[in-house]
Amino acid sequence: MSELAKLYEVLKSATVAQVLAFAALIVPGLVALRAYEAKRGGEPRKRIVKEQLSLAAVITLRDGRRVAGRLVEPAYVSTYPAPEQILLGEMWRVDQTSGTFIERMRGSWGMLIDKADCETIEFIRWSELSIPLVRITAC
Asked: Where are the domains of the chain?
């Protein structure tokens, strides 16, 4: 017999009082869990551009490569209980040895990076970067 059929058989024989008693046990736990999540910060994905911080990030991946980007819309970070990730909103080419920003990658919508792939994440104030002026021409 399938699991769904077994569940139906069990529920079919339950009385109204049993269903209400079960709900009385479960609902407070669900409410408490939601209250705990709200207290911890609510949604697991946090928009970081709401903070009005103009930041950039240089991320060194576990294989040694560096990726860099500016934290602009739709940038966010996710925290527990979701898998921990960062979404860079604007990607930049970066010098692999010095970590210097070279030029903005045209057409990029950002990059989603998982915590498991990161060795380090460096946050830098965008205003403190010295980026050479690059002329972007249409192809």
From this structure: 3-40, 45-128
What is the rounded CA–CA span in Å between residue 89 and residue 55?
A: 11
Q: Quick check: 72 and 52 in contact, CB under 8 A? A: no
- CA–CA gap between residue 14 and residue 55 (Å, rounded): 57
Terminal alpha carbon distance of the chain: 63
Read off the pLDDT band of 44 (50, 70, 90): low
Q: What H or E segment, with its residue span, contains residue 21?
A: helix 16-40
pTM higher than the cut 0.90: no
Q: H or E segment at 61? A: strand 55-61
Query: Which of helix, strand or coil describes residue 116?
Result: helix
Over residues 96-107, the pLDDT tens digits come to: 888 788 888 888
CATH for 45-128? 2.30.30.100
